[in-house]
Design a protein that fits this description.
His-Me finger endonuclease fold; 50% helix; alpha+beta; two-stranded antiparallel ribbon; 2 domains
Length: 125
């Protein structure tokens, strides 16, 4: 956990708001319906907005999530590029969204290729 968030997530205000929100949603994940364990901020908190209660403590900006949906939320958004001391790329961890895009793109390309080859054979016949 980042240092700016540690104090907030340990505060009574956050504990009260998150417990009330989770209780009002019966501790059910709002995405899949499984038991929820995390009160998630729809707007990611950062050092500049964590002190704004309209963002950090606003129930309209919260969501009950199970661990799986919370993990998907945070891994779908970012591709991580690692660099060595000289600034050279040494590794790339693709985000879930990027992996899904590539899978969908490849499936679409295969379908398009199949349709194109079928159309060619229809023209030759």
């Amino acid at each position: 956990m980042k240092d700016f968030a540690r104090e907030f997530y340990n505060s009574k205000a956050w504990r009260d708001v998150s417990t009330a929100y989770m209780t009002s949603h019966f501790y059910l994940c709002e995405r899949c319906g499984n038991p929820a364990t995390i009160c998630h901020h729809k707007t990611y908190l950062n050092a500049s907005n964590i002190s704004d209660p309209n963002i950090s403590l606003n129930p309209d900006r919260l969501e009950c999530l199970c661990q799986d949906c919370h993990n998907k939320e945070h891994t779908l958004r970012r591709t991580i590029t690692r660099f060595d001391d000289d600034g050279n790329i040494v590794g790339i961890k693709k985000s879930g969204a990027e992996k899904q895009y590539e899978t969908d793109r490849d499936a679409f390309d295969a379908l398009l290729k199949k349709m194109t080859s079928q159309n060619r054979s229809d023209l030759i016949s």
